[in-house]
Amino acid sequence: MGGPSGGGSFLHSSPKKPKSRRLVRYTYRLLASLGLFVLMSGGLVVAFFVYDASTYEENPESFDIPVSEYALTPRRGGPKNLPIAEYFVDDDDTPSMKEQKHKPKLVILGTGWGSVAMLKQLHAGEYHVTVVSPSNHFLFTPMLPSATVGTLEFRSLVEPVRKIVKQKHGHFLKATAVDVDFSEKLVEISSTGPTGEEERFYLPYDKLVVGVGSTTNPHGVKGLEYCHFLKDIADARLIRNQIIRNLETACLPTTSDEQRRRLLSFVISGGGPTGVEFAAELYDMLNEDLCKYYPRILRNEISVHVIQSRGHILNTYDEALSKYAEERFAHDEVGILTNARVKEVRPESILFTQKDEQGNTVTKELPQGFCLWSTGVSQCEFSQTIAAKLGDNQQNKHALETDSHLRLAGAPMGDVYAIGDCSTVQNNVSAHIVTFLRTLAWEKGQDPESMKITFADWQQVAKRVKSRFPQAADHLRRLDRLFEQYDQDKSGTLDFAELSELLRQIDTKLTSLPATAQRANQQGEYLAKKFNKLAHSTEGFQKNLIADGDIDEAVYKAFEYKHMGSLAYVGNAAIFDFNGMNFAGGLLAVYLWRSIYFAQSVSLRTRCLLAMDWSKRALFGRDMMNY
Amino acid sequence: MGGPSGGGSFLHSSPKKPKSRRLVRYTYRLLASLGLFVLMSGGLVVAFFVYDASTYEENPESFDIPVSEYALTPRRGGPKNLPIAEYFVDDDDTPSMKEQKHKPKLVILGTGWGSVAMLKQLHAGEYHVTVVSPSNHFLFTPMLPSATVGTLEFRSLVEPVRKIVKQKHGHFLKATAVDVDFSEKLVEISSTGPTGEEERFYLPYDKLVVGVGSTTNPHGVKGLEYCHFLKDIADARLIRNQIIRNLETACLPTTSDEQRRRLLSFVISGGGPTGVEFAAELYDMLNEDLCKYYPRILRNEISVHVIQSRGHILNTYDEALSKYAEERFAHDEVGILTNARVKEVRPESILFTQKDEQGNTVTKELPQGFCLWSTGVSQCEFSQTIAAKLGDNQQNKHALETDSHLRLAGAPMGDVYAIGDCSTVQNNVSAHIVTFLRTLAWEKGQDPESMKITFADWQQVAKRVKSRFPQAADHLRRLDRLFEQYDQDKSGTLDFAELSELLRQIDTKLTSLPATAQRANQQGEYLAKKFNKLAHSTEGFQKNLIADGDIDEAVYKAFEYKHMGSLAYVGNAAIFDFNGMNFAGGLLAVYLWRSIYFAQSVSLRTRCLLAMDWSKRALFGRDMMNY
């Protein structure tokens, strides 16, 4: 660098500056700048290598590790006399882990959006945290469709849960919860033992968070064994392999024309975001990468169909957006079959019914070489087991019911919480009418059921309703109008029956929260914030056991879901629905779509990997291999 | 940019230059340079995005593709009356593919080092190329051990074969060769049909190249079903999952101390490069990444053992290097059990015999939670089938024998070639003694067997031997000494018996070529160069059918293996053996080891991916997840 820049200053100091000199000077400067750029880039590379060299551990650490005897040989107990895992082998591993050894035990079931959001927000050291899940990674589900066709690497979508747990000095067990004993506060856990057989043990808890997610909804359709699902990385890998296998088989000289068309007929059952994004990604791959390497005849014989039971795909989105998506797919030659219900999946075809123009239901058959089943979610076995235990408190067949503080309805108050897809927040405002009126009645010394409620009283009641059911706030904006409307005898006051009717009407307007990553994420964060507060407001939860007040309500507000918007990728285009602000577009929208997920991605690691993957796709295309 | 640099030139033109001004000037320059760096980097990013945007296909191509009727409905024939795939659906896809439709049919079996090296060197358009393999990717095998523990991504080690085949306007069939009919020139192919059942068809060839590789050698040991192998990506994935599963199970509270130690006992049977590199990578992972996320007690209970039947690990390397590797492993607490033979693998342990100090053979047992079997290679079924067909011409039980032109011994000359691990080059110099003497005898009008060979004659014979058996050249350096030595009656001439004995002695000194990627690669390149020449020297191979001369020999020299050296990674250190030049060392050697493989890597794509992977490992460590 010294050379050129020294030359530059020599030129500057010369008194005369003819034009040619100036040109030389600028050339020098340009070269110097370029050299500088190369040097700086080179410097960064060298710095990286120095850092890389520092990451290799030279000497193995080896010393005595203190391990509690109780951790090695747990005592047995509980209703089934199983081992009770009170202590773990890593309880004394670090000073900070030692510190929380005797803190209240917080057990989190699952490692999905809700559980991980909670873990990330939780203050380390307040609880003895144990995470139990059959999968040791967190999966960034919204981008899973991209991984099925090789646009993204599997690894870029997952984050090791142990990494997140370790930050909170917690413990992780790769196992599955099968039951809960609410009275003894024990979760029954099933794991695969060292020799491959099932083993069961109890995990004691002070606070239990259920975030076990959901399973695929079969909708009573026969032949789902011929379908693929898209819930986890393993599914994505199976899909990727099947697609490539079909393409390869289609190239064989022994494959007949008819079979080739069948192998290349891709059917997606379900027009929700997962189905639509998968169709878009699949189409992209077939369009962009297939032609490069496979015989051209394949491109002509490929068909992609989406079977949707409603009138439009993406029916939870704004209508303009779902229309945009449909137009996009029409342009891309992806067939959309709306108002169609799958009857049966067969090894080589799919049967479905659809209304014709006269309104008659007609059964149709579509040959299929690949079928994806993505038609909503259903309750998993564990949720069913504990719901059954809680009897009448759990009426919902599809999810575990919680109150607006996310406490599992029917379980001892403040012990068990449920978040994410496995749960739903009760909207039974009217069922709590007596609770709302209790203070008011006590102040006035009256019986709640015979009270006359003035407008001022109503304002107080409405305030309480809003604080307990934040989701109802939208429907409690014009208190005066509501008061007038439901004061049917125009007495200037509401009686118990009138108020009940008012609240019942609000109930019907409240819809259950969507089973999305967004909701689970918000619930997890909500619970973490509350638990952080709870840890400080009570000493070791002992008050929780003796006080009969609602400590959750005292400490923190009720959960309120804030819809941040929806987005979807629809094949070199993307659509956005931000609370009524709609936006749909081509490549720029795709970059925006990526940016949003990039920002929401779980760690710096996954962000780097995503960026690398997108670059890889641009430079080298998707990989058409199966292994 | 305008601002600071404009300010800079204003400062320059001012007549006085006090020190403070100079400081300001340099600060300005520094800032300007930094700004420039950011701008240039930004420019590169923008340029990348513009490029990225151009890679999205907007409009699907859709037009009529001409496909030959013969390709859609192949005629039947051959000894088993199977369909004969003479034409393919993509024969007319592009003008260049159309051009070679009627060129001589070159069929390549396998997509390993040999086949891919050949494909890459082959001139496009000379042959109608068809590649048949059960796997549609080429695997960069030397780095496979790194992929087992997540240092590298699976995808970075593989290259889609269709991409390479496409460059040569060839065809690819994902299928397996099962038999060859040498007289009708048909390869019998087995494939998985559209409904999952096996289908068979014939593939006609003019030239057939067998590069089907080898399988694992069981050495007659019982219980290999409890072992892992390391031949393909699928194996690497199974290994990665098993390691993580063992670690997770070791953390469960129900796992006893004894079982935990067993689960964490990793045994590698075979001290060759694969076994050693796997042990090194495994140790690295356990040492560098395990402690970060798993209970510390695991680190203390882990053991890694390498069982080697010879006296040293890496016994094909220079002794100093294998000693260095052994010391390295001793430092890393990896147990090396030499002179040990595995007797049986059991679900939870491995039995082996080892000589004790008194020379007695003792049977020992080692608990195992993971066992890798990497003890050499064996002939695969297809090779066995065709070797059996060729009868006495194929005596070797371990590989297909070829002459030094790589032509399969016993098959019609110039029709079938064999390369890579499935093959071995015959070293039967003495068997060809009559061939060497034929011209000489013809010139002198004598019977070869009663000829007297003078030193001048011997020089001529030696030249012929060297050209036919390049591997023998090393042993034919001092012709005068050899002549003297074998001229036992000191007659000044050699008779037939004396010359036979001389050549027989040379035979015993020749060792068979190593079954390595290096040899396969050289053989593939050799064959491609020869085939390129053959295509030009004869018109459509017709001469090959009528001339009875040795066209291979006329056109191109015999295959000569040039050993370029061996290298191995031994745990944050690497060893190199370049034809006697030995080198072993720590991190710098590791970077050198990487550079060599980086350079040898199959494409720009894999090179970029490798670089990304190494950066990922440095930044984020290995991923400890299984899915």
TrEMBL record, chains A, B:
Principal location: mitochondrion
Subcellular location: Mitochondrion inner membrane
GO molecular function: calcium ion binding; NADH dehydrogenase activity
Domain EF-hand: 474-509
Record-level GO cellular component terms: mitochondrial inner membrane
Keyword presence, Methyltransferase: no
Transmembrane portions of the chain: 26-51
Family recorded in the similarity comment: Belongs to the NADH dehydrogenase family.
Record protein name field: EF-hand domain-containing protein
